[in-house]
Structure formats: structure tokens, C-alpha cells
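Tutorial, part two.
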Amino acid sequence: SLPRGRNIQRITTMSSGEKTFPQYGPICGCCAPVPWWSPPDAEEAAKDGPRRDAPRLLNSFTKTKVPFVPLDGNRVGWYICGPTVYDSAHMGHARNYVNFDVIRRVMTDYFRYDVRFIMNVTDIDDKIVMRAHLRRSEAMISAAEAVGGLDALTAPLKALLASGEKNLGEQESLTASLCAAIVAKDPTAVAEPDWTVQDGYLALAHAFEAEFMEDMRLMGVARPDALTRVSEYTEKIVQYIQTIVDRGYAYESNGSVYFDVPTFEQSPNHKYAKLNKEALKNVELAMDGEGALAADASEKRAENDFVLWKASKPGEPRWPSPWGLGRPGWHIECSAMCSDILGEAVDINGGGIDLNFPHHENQLAQSEAHYDIKQWVNYFVHTGHLHIDGLKMSKSLKNFITIRAALKMYTARQIRFLFLLHQWSDPMDLTPVQEGDAVTGFQQMEAAVIAEKTFVEFFHSVKGALRGLGCAAGYSVDQEHTWGDEERALSSAIDAARAGVYAAMIDNINTPAVIKSLKELVGGVNKYLGSVAADAVRPLLVESAARYVTMILACLGVAATTGGIGLGDIAGGGGEGGGSDSKEEAMAPVLDLVVKFRDEIRALARSGADAKALMQACDRIRDVGLPELGVKLDDREGGALWKLSTPEELRREAQREAEAKAKKEEQKRREKEEAARKAAEKEALAKVPPNELFKQGEYAGLYSKYDEDGLPTHDKDGEELAKAQRKKLAKTQAAQKKEHDKFLAKAAAEQLGKATI
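Running the prediction step on this input gives:
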């Protein structure tokens, strides 16, 4: 029997005959084949009891926003395609996984679904295999050059690498021969003399997987509930493929196994090209999914067929199967691993939009063929591309910035704000700011930095107001709590923010709109704090607003879930209120600074220093000492306000302020120079007598005849000037006479002054 509430239609017959691609779905190529998508059973999903409305998610099946309905009560099975670990992750990866982290957090923490979140790691792939061989070959060439005398063996290997040919068998043989020769001359020159690709590719993959997971931790991305690696699933993948073969939807050819697209498409309740209507026509893009080491296309029965199991060639890792030694194709891994944990019906499958075809299209077909069902996934969600100056960020285009490099320029929270200010399903453009060849930032980050600062300043203001009342926890028995007009206005602002956030959340989790609503609430709180006396602030209401802002920002992954108010530390581990440091260790830097400051003030006082010297000492602890401890002081009427941050962020802020100040001073200098230039030009022009004005400078060559006062009467071609034109020139000459008279008077006065002296 089938699980309750799942959209599964068991197929009992298969079509036979000539393999053709019948007409399907809408005729218009820009429309999604919506007849092939069935919405889940809403009644079954509601069996756990009522809750707030479900979000409307942009479903790639329909290309529209549709209400989300889980398969089974409140439980959600969710699979996303993880990284292919052959190189460092870049900002395109960051956007993809941060976006899914945000959606997951919102679905879990805001909509309160019980989400099981699965991510795979592709650690068997052509790119990994080729990179492992390349690193091994380059290491042996370096070792051979260090040992010396092996040019005859290094030359053919260098030539093969330079040619770009993907002949891994020959490369492996040449590298092994070179290794043996090196070891014969110096047994200590090679760290792994018995290296094989079967182990070497996995060592490379593990290194980049560990780096990727650390990148995700630094970016504040929550760990998945389950992590699946292809290398740990080869046996189950073979079994999965065998089932597809047994059902008649795949066939063996020369030791490889291919999915039979025409047979699948011909079956009454199966449909290929659910996500991309042009899938059957786009053979070239489909072949990109076969990998750089794909076998000859002549092995396939139809050009749209795609590989499930690759027969391994020399130099490639291999695993046993009924069809011979080989390795899994790219698409089949996700079908087998997702099915192993989530079964024959999946709520959400996701990934970057570049995976829409061929990867996700083929993943769907394989899984529906394996289970012989009509619909394996109910919602396909795809995140938009990240572009660099209009081009997709990718390693192949060499236009990528790694996550580690970005984190040297900005904090993880600022990068997350950058992504939150753009809708997750839309494409997004980044414009690098460069100094020479070095990228020093992105133009779009300015808005993200401002957004972060808005909330940082908001929380500092709230905490400062509560501390000023002596009720940092939001309550004091000595504080008055009755509401007036200002409190009612703030309460309305809180209600409006809640409504705005809710409307944005159910609308495809519209994070830019969420941030907008929160900023409006921040503005409302700031207005309230500025309109009432400090001792008349109603702490419970202010704290309520701040807690709500904190809660929503935590749902978006830019605030820590500490239970208090404020942003906290979003990276894995650490944060406020934790850690193993003793009180003495934690307080030592602050106490050292206080003692040093006290000693300095005492020394100044003993020396009879004036108030200026004392003020300079106070400025130094504000501008230098405290920022190095992550403390910022804002001078205000009635006393300074302290704010906690990080030393790194305060250094960045100081650098930004210094750059802004330098830019402003440079602008002033240019304006002063421009004013001086114009003044000099004006003075030089004032020296010209009115009767000579139209015979030189900008007027030179424009006129041929003048009257007795030097006023032009004819143009350069001898034509008499019109009356209106002569009248205009006369006004110009009159103005020049005034300026020239001023110049003569000034010159005469200066001459008289010199004569008197």
C-alpha cells in the first residue's frame, strides 16, 4: 500500500512500438507544462491541526507561486543538491546555500514546519578525477626537477598536459613511470609512491569538502540533517539502476548503462521535460551533463538518452557492477541518495537554476522510472544566478571570487544582508570594485553595510535606553508603564511590521520586503525614543519591538538565537553568554586598558596639564583603546553611549570613515582649486579693455568689423550683424566695462599704497 497523502499513481502497463516524442503540455514554448504537476492533498496536510497560512512558493514545475502543502502533516522532506568538491567555493555558491539556509530557517522557525533537510556531496566526478591526476602529475614533475636528470621522462608528460587532451590512462602511466624513476634516485623524494586514483581522487574531494563545510560555518549556514556522499552510495546506486533496467527504462551498452528517454516518454503516465519544455531539443546542453570524460555518443540508442553508469576507462576510479567495472553518472546519484532517506515522495527538491536542466530534469525521470510513479517531487525550487558584471559567476569563466576572499572584505552578516536584499529566486548582479587587478569590494555591498548598521545602531539605542532606566531586562518595579499617545503609535508600528513581515513571508519568502518592514519598525522605535523623555520610556513596549526584530532577523540567519535582543554571533560556535574563558581571562584586556588610562590621567594631573591634554587622552581611549576591544563610544548630550561590536568590524568602520573623510577633503580641495581657477580667469578677463574684448580669447576670429567703441558690426564673412545680436553684444561689453573699471581702481589703489610706503 502507498503512504497516505502522497501523489503517487502506480503504472501497470508500458507503451511499446516506435520511440517518438508525442505532443505534450502547452503549445507555447515559454509556458511550463503545468498539466503534469499535481498539487498535494491539503486535507491530509492539515491533519496535525490548524496553523497560519502556508507560504506560496515559486514552483519550477508551474513557473508560478503555489501554496505549499506538505505530503504528511507538518513534516517536510527536503533535498538540495550540494557541492561538487573539486575546488574552493565561490560567492555564487555562497548565495545559493545562504538562500536555502534562509528559506529553511523561515520554514522551520517562522512557519513551524518539521523539516528534514538533506544535502549531498558529489565526490565522484570527472572534474575531481582530472584535478587529482593533474595535481599528482604536477607534483611528480616538481619532484623530478628537484632530483634532476629526468628530463627524458618529464618532457612527454609536460607535452600531454600542455595539449589539453583528456587521456587519463596515458597520463597515469607517464606519471607512474616518472614516480618510479624519482624513487629509484631518491626514495625520500615522493611522499606517496604507491598513489592510485582510486584513493587519490577521494583525498582531494575530502579536502575540498572540509573546506566547503567550514565556509558554510563561517557564513552562518546551518548543518544539514543528513549528508550523503556518492562515494558511500555506490552499491545502492547500482541497485537503484538495476531496478530502472528491470522496469525497461534503461539499457546496457559497452559496459555503460543509459536511461531510455523515448521509452519513458512513450509511457502513458510518464513525462519527460517537466521542468524545461525544450529539454528534448537541447541535446548540446544535455551532453554537458555527461561530464568531460563521457563515452562516445554512438553507444546510445537515442541522442537524448543519458548515462546512469559509466564504464571506467584507464585512469578512472572504478566499482563493481553487473555491467562491469565503472562509476555512477552525475544525475543518478541524487535520485538514489534522496530516495534512500526520503523515499518515493519528496516535498521539496532544490538547487541553483543552472541545475534545472539537465540535472534536475533527468533526476526526476530516473526516480519516477525507478518507482514507476507519476510524480516524485511536489515542489522544485531554484535559486537565481549570481552574475559578475552580467555574466554568471563560474569557475569555467574564471570570474569567481572565493568565499574566503569575500570574508576578508566583509563580515558574514554583511554578505547575508546582501543576499537578503535581493529576492532569492531572481538573478543578482555583483559589480567588483578594483584597485589594479585586486578586487577590494562590491558596489552592491554598500546597501548591505548600511542595512546592518541600521539594525546595529537600533539595538544599541534600545539597550542604552533600557540601561538608562535601570531595567536592562525590560522591567523595573520603579518604572511607570501606562501608555500615552506615543506608546499607542509605537504599538501600531509593531502591528504594522508584523503584518508586513507576514505578507512578505507568505509571498514566496520575500526577504527584501521583510527587511523593509523591519526597517520601518526600527524607524518607529527611534521616533518614539526621540519624542519622549529618557525617564518616561516604556521599557516593556520597546523591548517587545526589539525582541520581534531580533526574532525575525534570527529567522533570516543574521541574528543569533540567544533569547535576548541584538544580532549576536551568527558563525558556528561562540557568541554572547558562552565560552570556556574564565572571568579573569575575559576581563583582563578591559582592566588593563582601564589601569593604563588611569595611570595616564594621574600623570597628566601631576604635571599640571591643561584641559586640552586631558581631553586628548579621553579621545585616545575612545578612538584607539576601546575599539581594539570591540567597544565603540558615541559622545552624546548627557553622557556617552557604549556599543559592543568586534575589533575587526570597528577597524573596518574606522577605515570606511577615514576613506569617506579623505574623499570629502579631496572634493573640497578640488572645489577650492576650481574656485581659484575661475577667480584667476575672471581676473585675467577683467584686465581686457572693453574695446578689445571681442578681438581676442573666445571671440577671436568671429568678427571682421567693429565700431569706434570696439563693438562688432559684421561677422567673419562680412555680413552685417542683426540688431538683436548687436544689442546682446553691447550688454556683454557693458558688463566687461564694469569689471575692467573695478580692476583699474584696484590697481590704482595698490599703486597708491606702494607709493605711500
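The chain has 21 helices and 20 strands. In part three we will examine how such features are distributed along the chain.
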